């Protein structure tokens, strides 16, 4: 995930922070994996702690092995449980974060998310109901490139305003 953030043109401690500590409304400590800074004090929260143990077991089995269905179902349950657990953390309600009403759940292996979708096509919509958007490397990179472009536009705007001010 860090590689994707940097490859998109974002800089740590400038455009994003990793494992920073925040407090919720009950003064409990929270540690989102990554918080992406946006212009005007806005933020995106990314969680990347998805268990891929069942997916790994699925991949290690022969295609005709009936155990593959069992492992595919276990992988889906694991992802759904993570969505539910993540929704309960209420990262979007942290005091120091002005976040949209959703957060990004990063699944680092595209076929792992593909398997979950093939097992249950409603997983994406169920996550959305919990204000969670499931992203993979390709979809996250597209999002991060957009964020990088927004920052470039913001920097250009500041430069134009400074030039106009000095003129």
Brief summary:
The chain has 167 residues and is of the alpha/beta class. It has helices at residues 2-7, 53-60, 67-89, 110-119, 123-129, 137-166, and strands spanning 16-18, 22-23, 29-30, 34-38, 42-47, 103-106, 132-135. The model has no long low-confidence stretch (mean pLDDT 89).
What does this structure look like?
The chain is an alpha/beta fold and 167 residues long. Helix content is 50%, strand content 16%. The strands form two sheets. A five-stranded mixed beta sheet has the order 1-4-5-6-7, sandwiched between helices. A two-stranded antiparallel sheet has the order 2-3. β4 (34-38) and β5 form a beta hairpin. α2 runs antiparallel to α3 (67-89) and α3 (67-89) packs across α4 (110-119). The longest helix is centred in the last third of the chain and has 30 residues, at 137-166. It is elongated, with a radius of gyration of 19 Å. The model has no long low-confidence stretch (mean pLDDT 89).
Structure characteristics:
167 residues; alpha/beta; 5-stranded mixed β-sheet; two-stranded antiparallel ribbon; 6 helices
